[in-house]
């Protein structure tokens, strides 16, 4: 049985297969290929796009999606093995995964990290615990990576560029008033490097480097695919000649769980917001972001309303790639 927890363990060829299927599904969106099938979508954190696109995608393929919000409209869940459950959680993931596996053919989970201890969160234990106890395939709807967003990003790039090999992809840290999850940034590194792009990680200073497991994977994938990976703290150099500017804000990992201390760094970097002036340095580059996005904080109105902004394409493509993932995992 295959899960979709991270693209790290999916080959370029397998990912290409998913993207090719997604392109076909985009042309022919309503089918009956998942008639009688169901997916449980467990959200431990808010969502607009992920929830809508999975629910709608399942319906468009003839199946049913059940949305559960543990701790809100479903019992709170404990994920730690061996926990003495005297806290708020009423049941353990062992039973939740077992029961949902009896009811449904697939299980999706969104479980953001706890933002207390990165050495723990970086192990992605919550979704791995679900996958361990489930007897049906599990899909990651965002933990410390966001593989569905990765596929939507790469589909959008392929639609615009065709071959993405050695296109300059700039992943830029951007301003936000508080430290956010690194998941989408980690994922952008993984997919752009796996597809042979020339990847620049632009961040304000060394404290904003991404976890070594993702940076080293990006180096390895770049070597394998004939692309490149570099880190820059120079805005002008990074934007210069870019084919794609992909923005995300995230917290500085050395200050993980200490937002007040992190603020002393963060407050200096409002100028990392994506603006038309910066985009003018690119080679007629595209701009995207996973959304949600605070306008005139992460990117200016001018960027968001420009011809080169492809955020809506990427959001739409979530629908198509996730349908491809569900079909693939069920072997249909
Ligand atoms: N990009 C994304 O996952 O959006 P939501 O948080 O709204 O699901």
Number of helical segments? 13
| Structural class by secondary-structure content | alpha/beta
- CATH topology description of the largest domain: Rossmann fold
Gross geometry = globular
Strands, count: 11
Architecture per CATH nomenclature, i.e. the level-2 architecture of the largest domain: 3-Layer(aba) Sandwich
What is the spatial order of strands in the main beta sheet? 9-8-7-10-11
Fourth-level CATH superfamily of the largest domain: Aspartate/ornithine carbamoyltransferase
Proportion in β-strands: 5-15%
Main sheet characteristics? 5 strands, parallel
Bound molecules: phosphoric acid mono(formamide)ester
Number of domains: 2
Question: Please, could you describe this protein's structure?
Answer:
With 332 residues, the chain is of the alpha/beta class. The chain has helices at residues 12-27, 49-60, 93-103, 118-121, 125-133, 147-161, 183-194, 212-225, 235-239, 259-266, 276-279, 301-304, 311-329, and strands at 38-43, 64-68, 77-78, 91-92, 106-110, 138-140, 168-173, 198-202, 228-232, 244-248, 286-288. The strands form three sheets. It has a five-stranded parallel β-sheet. A four-stranded parallel β-sheet has the order 2-1-5-6, sandwiched between helices. Strand 8, helix 8 and strand 9 (228-232) form a beta-alpha-beta unit. The longest helix has 19 residues, at 311-329. It is globular and about 55 Å long. It starts with 11 loop residues before the first helix and ends with a helix. Residues 47-50, 142, 149, 290-292 line the site of phosphoric acid mono(formamide)ester. The site of phosphoric acid mono(formamide)ester has 9 residues, from helix 2.
